Amino acid sequence: MTKKYQIGLLMLLAAAQANAAEGEGSGVVVSESASAAEAESGVYYDSAAETEAADAEAGDAAQAQTAADDEGGGDEGSHVFGYRNGYVHAALTARGEWTDNLFNNDSNKQDNFLTTISPSFWLTLPRRSKRPMQLVSDNTAVGGLQYSPADTDEYNKVQAYLSGTIDFMTYSADSDLTHAEGDLDAMLQYKPFDKLTFQALDKYTHSQDIFNVAEATSDNNRVYDSNVFGLGAAWYSKDKFSIKGGYRNFFLEYDEAVNDFMNRTDNGFDIALYYEHSPKTNFFLEYQYLMAEYDEKKMPDNDNNFLGAGVNWQATVKTNLMAKAGYQGVDYDEIEGGSSLSSAYDDSESNFYFESQGIWQATYKTSLLLNAKYSVEQSDSEQALNKTVLAFRLALDHRFTDRLRGDVNFVYENSDYAQFSGDERSDDRWYLKPELLYAVNKWLFLSAYCSFDSKDSNYDGLDYETSTFGLGVRGSF
User: Fold this and answer.
1) Which one, 272, 447, 453, 475, has least CB within 10 Å?
2) Radius of gyration over alpha carbons of the chain, in Å?
3) Which residues have a Cβ under 8 Å from the Cβ of 340 and sit 6 or more positions away?
4) Boundaries of every domain in the chain
5) Interacting residues of 122 by C-beta distance below 8 A, sequence separation 6+
6) What is the pLDDT of residues 13-45, one digit of tens each?
7) What are the pLDDT digits (tens) for 258-304?
8) Is 106 left (phi over 0), alpha (psi -120 to 50) or beta?
9) Is 423 exposed, middle or buried (0-12, 13-18, 19+ CB in 10 A)?
10) Pair 4, 48: CB distance under 8 Å
11) Each residue of 230-253: pLDDT tens digit?
């Protein structure tokens, strides 16, 4: 199981969510939390986009809980899951996991023991004890982002951030599968004066798609390189209005020619107008334009227009919600060369879309994060024009003791494919991962986890059920 779409939680600028500490959005795409696995527990997981984001989002809840500990004046032990305050942070993670269905293929199940060694680092200026952002991207989402980025206010004149991770992965089932994956994140934020902020973000990833019959297989592991880049600005007026805008570029390229139908470059911009109704509530109108351009023209280029409205609401200091909904219009070009597929689809379509994100600090020791979305995405199948995705993600974090923490991540995703043939294809995926994390001290962490992954499709051969059990150890420096 591999990092599909792992480029990032998130990137582009102009989607606002409530700031958990201040109660107002900043207009740039920075998240004050790291993933549960990376920043808190010391274990970073490989899986599909749905899984990646759920794991990262569990960290949001965990970091909110850590902040509650800080504000509550907890003892030294209560801070054991947090990073030290500094300019340079490094870690080394080792984990081993056994799975009963390596290729997520029920007709040909094969067990495997995966060993992963992951060195990582991150640098910040000024120094911090938490990562200033966590980027997670998605190869099928136009523009490279499946979820809008979480906002946070940054009051520094300059904020710089750089991080990198390499995963060395060894498979017992087939030594030819052994490979390395990696990613590199960078961010620079500059505030020339109080009411104006500029930001640049970038995320590069070398990885491969998740194993299953319709994606990566033993014969075609679908290795890819991708990059998300964004520029943005936010301006705050004195009369409760603010405006935010940005530019985004997403680049995706697969190694093998058999997968080149997915190679593309996305470009676009967004702009949003915000009204501060109260210190805890703001409303916004948002427009986003993104163009997907395919390199080999085996799939139709398309223009995507999003027009929506939403609200950021901070109910309490540690509870906030973002919700938005509106219209998504997609206009398709004809496939170059007079392809017979050009007559198999309409040149335009319009759909309702929505997105919601919320964090609830239920108790001093328990946090809950919930995300949901519905939209049209790019296709990962050469037989389909696009796919309409309904996604639901939940991350629960609970502190049993000062040193023992538990996380539960749940994902449901439905993908309805617009097949060129006119046939219906609908995939339902459920993913559940409970995990226990134990902090031996401030620099050494142990973890034990299992996951249950299931897909139910109306297409023959795509169903699977996979169980995974793993142990991990991480040292931070």
Assistant:
1) 475
2) 21
3) none
4) 36-476
5) 89, 131, 161, 162, 163, 164, 185
6) 223 233 333 333 332 233 333 333 333 322 223
7) 999 999 999 999 999 999 998 889 999 999 999 999 999 999 999 99
8) alpha
9) exposed
10) yes
11) 999 999 887 889 999 999 999 999
What type of residue is 472?
G
Residue 89 has pLDDT above 50, yes or no: yes
Please check whether residue 30 is in contact with residue 187, taking contact to mean a CB–CB distance below 8 angstroms: yes
Mean pLDDT of 452-470: 95
Question: What residues pair up with 244 in beta bridges, in sequence order?
Answer: 234, 272
Amino acid in position 356: S
Which residues have CB under 8 Å from 363's CB, separation 6+? none
Q: What's the CA gap between 155 and 274, in Å, rounded? A: 19
Residue 426 has which token pair? 């609908």
Non-local (6+) Cβ contacts of 183 within 8 A are: 6, 7, 8, 164, 165, 203, 204, 205, 206, 207
pLDDT score at 10: 30
Give the CA distances from residue 266 to residues 269, 385, 413, in Å, rounded to whole numbers and listed in that order: 10, 16, 24
First vs last Cα of the chain: how many Å apart? 28
- Peptide bond between residue 434 and the one before it cis (omega within 30 degrees of 0): no
pLDDT in tens, 333-359: 988 766 667 777 888 999 999 999 998
Tell me what percent of the chain is helix, strand and coil, each rounded to the nearest 5. Answer: 10, 55, 35
As a CATH number, domain 36-476 is 2.40.160
Beta-carbon contacts of 342 under 8 Å, excluding residues fewer than 6 positions away, are: 300, 334, 335
